Amino acid sequence: MEQQTNNLSGDKQYAFKNVLLETGFEYDGQEIIKTQTGLFCIEIENGKIKTITPNDLNKNAIDAEGRLMLPAFKDMHAHLDKMLYGLPWQAVSEKRKTVKDMIAYEQQMIPEWLKTSVVRTEKLIDMLQSYGTHYIRSHFNIDPTSGFESLKHLEIALQYKERTVGTELVAFPQHGIFYTDTAPLLKEVVKMNIDFIGGVDPFSIDGSIEKPMELITQLAVDNNKGIDIHLHETSESGVKTIEYLIDKAMENPQNLKGRTFVSHAFVLGHLPLSKTESIAERLAEAGVGIVSSVPFRDTVMPIPLLRKHGVEVLVGNDNIQDHWSTFGSGNMLQKAHLIAELYGYTTEWELSRTLGLATRQILPLDDKGNQQWPKVGDEANLVFIESSCSAEAVARISPVRSLVHKGNIVY
């Protein structure tokens, strides 16, 4: 398949045949025991799906060889600007135990990392694409050490990749806003071509919840940006920070509802059930989402509870073999697998639903088994996988064989 597609990635119109699509669920009484599938031809034109027709072996088309076609994956929390990927192997050091330890280390290392960051970012994107990811929300450092260089280097790398990957960018004051005098830089970067403004642990880094959060939310409202805050704090300050954001989203629904997120929000995994339920209800009402890298050390995030209450839960890899974490494969299908294993999703139906956490809830079948993707007119963001169905792909972390982004065949 790869040899046939290499010369077609720029074509405005082409087709696939022998494409395996999910068509419904098979029941034994009330139990879903299998996912039904069929073979089809898919025609692509100008980056969108033009036709979906019964399979025709004689059609002049790229042969998908019976591979399962699924929605391409979305990594909703990455740091493309400062991974160690592309540098010699380095495990996490036991000397750096706190966020402030990491800040000091980054202040030392960022000038060196920036020397090769463009090339390494491209390589990292290649790696994510090899696992079927076509869209990435990437944070980039904005701090006195980086200045605007992390953003500039990231933009250069993304220009090289603009036909094959979609992105949204978050200005991330990793070193605190007032702890390192980053506020002036934030006020400038928010006027640039970015999508979100971020922050990190306002109480433990900046010594106040209100002062940094007021600046962040006001900059977002004034400049029509979303918000995505890193919050690792598990104490009362973590709760108060989340409640502050909820209140601000409720006060500014036109600007912030559906565009405000808390990344990590570890405190939600350390509260009594009744308190977590209460916060989840308010998060849903305010349209504030949670972005999780699915931690599994001493914190099990209440993802099922959040989703039950209608909170949007996004998932990303976060640290991909960097100075914060030795692990992190970059594989969103592996993340879905981890979620299924962590929360005991073992049935055909549960596994098929879990795929949605890798695709931002784009699924071939709805909860009742009605086919809802792909549809004519959908953007052609596709992966071809060695699997019989979504449930098997999640359970077995099935190999991804091909990726298409907006009709461009990536590989």
UniProtKB/TrEMBL annotation:
Species of the source: Pseudopedobacter saltans (strain ATCC 51119 / DSM 12145 / JCM 21818 / CCUG 39354 / LMG 10337 / NBRC 100064 / NCIMB 13643)
Molecular-function GO term, any one: hydrolase activity, acting on carbon-nitrogen (but not peptide) bonds, in cyclic amidines
Pfam families: Amidohydro_3
Domain Amidohydrolase, chain residue ranges per copy: 163-411
Gene3D superfamilies reported for this sequence: Metal-dependent hydrolases (3.20.20.140), Urease, subunit C, domain 1 (2.30.40.10)
Protein name stated in the entry: Amidohydrolase 3
CDD domains (UniProt xref): Bact_CD
InterPro entries: Amidohydro_3, Metal-dep_hydrolase_composite, Metal_Hydrolase, Metallo-hydrolase_Enzymes
